[in-house]
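[job 4417] fold queue: 2 targets
>>> target A
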Amino acid sequence: MRNTAKITTAVLAAGALTLGLTACGSGKDAASDTSGPLIVAASPVPHAEILTFVKDNLAQKAGLDLEVKEFTDYVTPNTATEDGSVGANFFQTQPYLDDFNKKNGTHIVSVVDVHLEPLGLYSNKVGKAEQLKKGATVAIPNDTVNEGRALQLLAANGLITLKDGVGTAATPADITKNPKDLTFKELEAAQTPRSLEDVDAAVVNGNYAIEADLKPAEDALVLEAAKGNPNSNLLAVKEGQEDDPRVKKLAELLTSPEVKKFIEDKYAGSVLASF
């Protein structure tokens, strides 16, 4: 993407370990220097694509200097936001953010909900979920919230039954009924679409499905319902940066009619505007 810095997970992870969760350097960082560009960490698809649309079509008129940095994992965008390497991030849901803050002692807060990426079950072996054979292997994301979402999706479609009240904290240990004796392969979320050749089915996050040329609205055997779904993807900043005028401008642009139309036209139901 034009004017987008692609950063490898390995390099970013090394940087995060070096910096820890403290502000970097003795000068101004990306979060505190409101006179500079707003640097936003984002997953490549659809987050960076949406931000690039804003950058190329809306930001200049709104007086916003926007820089987009792509990240390929679900950890470094938050550590970079916490340590001030970037001023905001756009890649995660509120349940994931709450869990991340709790486990890592970070102080990141939501600014605005932007869109929903429905989680889906995909397979190269069967055309319907009920066609999964007894003992089939299903890949699921291994991070706390997305694993719980994956299991809730399977439960909602009758493939398993979960303990009451486990919500997005569900793990395979919370399965009370498994009539097909499904075996679960827990993988990093980004790896789930790549596992489709090796497993019978995989539950894949919407952004990773799109990156893998899957069309959630067409290819998923079962898909999360949008109505009442708490898993909208959001713009987030370190606590205390919510009133940064650059952040406020970006929040307005991300929830504008122009962005809603872009999402509808480009993703054709595979990504849904939350505003």
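>>> target B
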Amino acid sequence: MNRTDKIDTSVPHSARVWNFLLGGTDNFPVDRRAGEQVIAVFPGMVDMAQQSRQMLRRVVRYLAGEAGVEQFLDIGTGLPTMDNTHEIAQRLVPRSRIVYVDNDPLVLTQARALLTSTPEGVTDYVEADVHDPDAVLTEAARTLDYARPVALMLMGIMGLVGDDDEARSIVARLMAALPSGSYLALYDGTTADPAYTQAISAYNAGSGAAPYKPRDPEQLARFFDGLDLVEPGVVPVTDWRPDPGHENAPRVSCSGGLARKP
């Protein structure tokens, strides 16, 4: 069976809905309808998608630049857009090695077509589910060297794991496999804005897609237990080391942080 034959266009998929919110074209009518329903209740959803993507860019620049990390495990990568993790990292460190992980066949198809690499580095794609961290780690080991620091990127993905204990267990199991000097980068939607929470509740109830669970900032901070948070800690994505001239970006109901494994 061809990978594209597995694509279900009858229900929305979070990666494709997110692509729509970012202005992309790799989505289907069912994804656009789901995204439009969220925007109708919560118009700030587009700002949230864009500002969280900006934090990802700043995090990767910090990791590849200041922190000297050359390996990235990006789980729940979504559909390729401008300035993907490998593009940012390899601009700074051409020998960087990046593994993307997702479980949508359309993401797999697009990733193989678009996620190229510098000659010095490596970019790979793994079809796996964040609910199975052992499988993720096994597959990623084909490309990544777990004897050297790895940046684990969980950007907007842990909200798809509804059980808090399971979500923390997944993150802990992934980080346990990585050596000292590795990093955890994570952001997710929060309960800070009631309008956002209402929009997500309606999306969960009516879209047929995998449900998404916003958490409060204190719950997000628990994902970093045992790690050394990089300043400014767990904050709204717009407040995480904003670029000069962008300090007054729209406030969004999404928070995250970056932390180093001692």
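[job 4417] complete. Note on B: The beta strands are 71-75, 97-102, 122-127, 151-155, 183-189, 228-229, 235-236, 254-260.
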